[in-house]
Amino acid sequence: MNHGADYVLYWMIANRRLGWNYSLDRALEHCQQLGKPLVILEALRCDYPWASDRIHRFVIQGMAEKAERLGVVGGGEITYYPYVEPTRGAGKGLLSALTKQACVVVTDDFPCFFLPQMVAAAARKLKVRLEAVDSNGLLPMRAAEQVFSRAFDFRRFLQKALPQHLGDAPQADPLYKAGIAAAVEIPHEIVSRWPTAPGELLRCEPAELARLPIDHSVGAVPTHGGEAEAQALLGEFLNVKLGRYGEDRNQPEQDATSQLSPYLHFGFIASHEIFSALVQREKWTPERLGLKVNGSREGWWGMSPAAEAWVDQFVTWRELGYNFCWQREDYDQYESLPEWVRRTLAEHASDDRPHLYELEQFERAETHDELWNCAQRQLVREGQMHNYLRMLWGKKILEWSRTPEQAAAVMIELNNKYALDGRNPNSYSGIFWCLGRYDRPWAPEREIFGMIRYMSSENTARKLHVKSYLNRYAVEAPAGLFT
């Protein structure tokens, strides 16, 4: 650690929030111990895979929110440096330049997409200590030293291991009376070479986005990025929707889910903040935890049934994906599927496939199945898809692709290109669940699927209410099919 340097640098890459953030807490701890100010660098490159107006705008909106609170480069008590790369490679050297006067660098430990490789490359090059801090979930990723193949097994482990961590949480507002040195001025030669994002870009003016070398065919969506919007959605869900979550969450026509997945992915809200708000709403205390560690989805938390159903989604299933990604570099590869899955799909590789589509046909929603087409149109138009229909969407891609390997590639491409919550451990969990990850063999054995769980649009339409959904995302529903 360089004690004689000018500041502590927090390189914000995944936890894009100013509260409930262990990385920020750690950086402030260094500031207090060393008597140094804090510099926060939040940089957005333009050459990441699937870079588009949609993703850029969502991230930049969060940057604008932080810039308003903190000021830009020395405008407040903390130096906030929002940098949006104007051309490919233009940001190269910025991190190294800032670290020359940094005592220590703190960053976010995120196990997915290109971020682990980026942090590892920086660690090899930088001349100063680099710390990556896990602020992803209620359970530290490294508390589980094995990969769990089933949600039941991971849930049982959580029930045993999580209670000792529930008393720990990052600070809700660590910048309030932080007690650190005043903001430092960034050298002019750095700011002049790598100018901070201008106001027009922070406002996401279309002309400014259009200048960036990103995919402009994937347009922005109404969903607004940032911490404030995430907190508003959380409040609405807890106050209005949670009571009917268990009953209505699988209904495409009912707005019964939290819509927080993109905000969790980009780090605008933390699991700890969500859990804290839920605890207050439920008037819950740890004494209500069940004593039996049996992996059951119901009863262990000692909350209302709706709350237990939701907490199982945003804790058990979400953190199960993080458990896989941090330990398996091949988390996004077909070969990462369980052996029984690969075997049964290989046994049915030569089965006749009545319908076959290429990536472009899937992307344009040009299949014979109108419910599937509607789900794909929702993804393209809104950057999200109803959770239950996502499962059907993936199962049908498996059925209509020449090989299961091709199906996996199609799902990854479409989800990561269009979904705001794509490129996340949870996304890969959902995609590979459609192919058998975290599942068990299902009888009877079927053509194409083998022992993989089967889903059909006809059965889905019989179980769920989809007429209004079809009307919303399709010009015309086929007569009689979904009645």
Describe the overall structure:
With 483 residues, the chain is an alpha/beta fold. It folds into three domains: 135 residues, Rossmann fold; 101 residues, Serine Threonine Protein Phosphatase 5, Tetratricopeptide repeat; 140 residues, DNA Cyclobutane Dipyrimidine Photolyase, subunit A, domain 3, CATH 1.10.579. Helix content is 44%, strand content 6%. It is built from 21 helices and five strands. Strands 3-2-1-4-5 form a five-stranded parallel beta sheet, sandwiched between helices. Helix 5 packs across helix 13 and helix 13 packs across helix 19. The chain starts with 6 loop residues before the first strand and ends in a 10-residue tail after the last helix.
TL;DR?
This protein is an alpha/beta fold.
Q: Can you tell me the CATH class of the largest domain?
A: Mainly Alpha
Distance between the termini: 67 Å
Give unreliable regions as ranges.
476-483
Assign a percent range to the helix content.
40-55%
Query: How large is the radius of gyration?
Result: 23 Å
Number of domains: 3
* Alpha-beta content class: alpha/beta
Number of strands: 5
The named CATH superfamily of the largest domain: DNA Cyclobutane Dipyrimidine Photolyase, subunit A, domain 3
Question: Mean pLDDT, rounded to whole units?
Answer: 95
Number of helices: 21
